[in-house]
Structures are given as C-alpha cells and as structure tokens.
Write a structure and sequence with these properties.
- The chain is of the alpha+beta class.
- The protein is built from 4 helices and 5 strands.
- The strands form 2 sheets. A 3-stranded antiparallel beta sheet has the order 4-3-5. It has a two-stranded antiparallel sheet with strand order 1-2.
- The N and C termini lie far apart (73 Å).
C-alpha cells in the first residue's frame, strides 16, 4: 500500500458497531453519546458533533437488540443504560436525519420610524 492510498480523501473512517461488533463506515453508523450531568440516558448524535465519548451502532433493530443483550451501552458509555431515545430513532427509520428541521422565525428589528 502506498502513501497516496492511505491518505486518499475517498477513504472514510471505519467504526465498530457495539451491537454486532462488525466494522462499518462512519457514515453508515449512528453515533451515540451519554447525556451526562448525572443522567444515564443515551442520546443519538445526529450531527456527530456532541462532546464526550461516542459509541457507534448500525441503525437496525437487530444490532440494537444485540447491544442491549450484551449490555454494550453501559460498557461503551461509562454506565449509561437508558436507550429510549436510541430505540425511537431506530424505529423512525433512516430518513429522520435527512428531514429538514423547522427554522425558528427571525424577528425583524423595528425601524424606529413608527413612533
């Protein structure tokens, strides 16, 4: 393998699914993080930008079931076990991340001429 093949921009990072333990492209897996602040909830990091240690999971019910059975969430995310948000995200399907988020309306500043 040459240096050009290693640093080629087309190469995507691989991550290991905590459910099936198989490697997959980062773009194919969900990134999960512990909510923090004393909570044991696991959150889905849709933008892959949240702070803290992340775990990766294929977005399928079989990998979710394997991760729960193996108690992989607690090991990967320092004791986090609340998987309700992950279960909701997986049941909603793969198009949730692609759905546009409703923008908050902007408030126009007053011109000052209506006094």
């Amino acid at each position: 393998m040459t240096v050009a093949e290693v640093i080629h921009p087309g190469n995507q990072p691989e991550r290991t699914c905590i459910g099936c333990r198989k490697k997959g492209l980062r773009s194919e897996l969900l990134r999960l993080v512990a909510e923090g602040s004393g909570s044991s909830a696991v959150l889905v990091d849709e933008r892959r930008r949240m702070a803290g240690r992340g775990a990766w999971l294929h977005p399928g019910e079989s990998c979710l079931a394997l991760a729960v059975k193996r108690r992989a969430f607690g090991r990967a995310l320092n004791g986090a076990t609340g998987t309700a948000a992950v279960e909701r995200r997986i049941k909603q399907g793969p198009n949730v991340a692609a759905a546009p988020v409703a923008a908050t309306p902007t408030v126009q500043p007053e011109s000052g001429s209506e006094i």
